[in-house]
Write a structure and sequence with these properties.
Length: 86
């Protein structure tokens, strides 16, 4: 099963990558920039596997660069909000 088959596994995957980046000392703006680059790559090269990813892809494709950065920042926040509280 691909990480893209299920939106929850997709968010979990993104959360894991974000935790790794933060653990290696990457600051918040760098994490957001990586999220933007991932979003751009996915929209151009990876077919959506579920409805949520299809909506994100459509939003990304109609957005200008500033709006795409906002989408990426919101995805980072979404993943951060899904983190279990310690």
């Amino acid at each position: 099963m691909s990480v893209l088959d299920n939106f929850e596994s997709f968010k979990s995957f993104l959360g894991d990558r974000m935790n790794q980046a933060e653990g290696q000392g990457m600051n918040h703006s760098a994490v957001n920039e990586v999220a933007y680059e991932i979003g751009d790559y996915l929209s151009k090269n990876v077919e959506a596997k579920n409805d949520q990813e299809a909506v994100l892809r459509e939003l990304w494709n109609v957005a200008d660069e500033k709006e795409q950065h906002a989408i990426a920042n919101m995805m980072v926040k979404l993943v951060q909000n899904d983190k279990p509280q310690s």
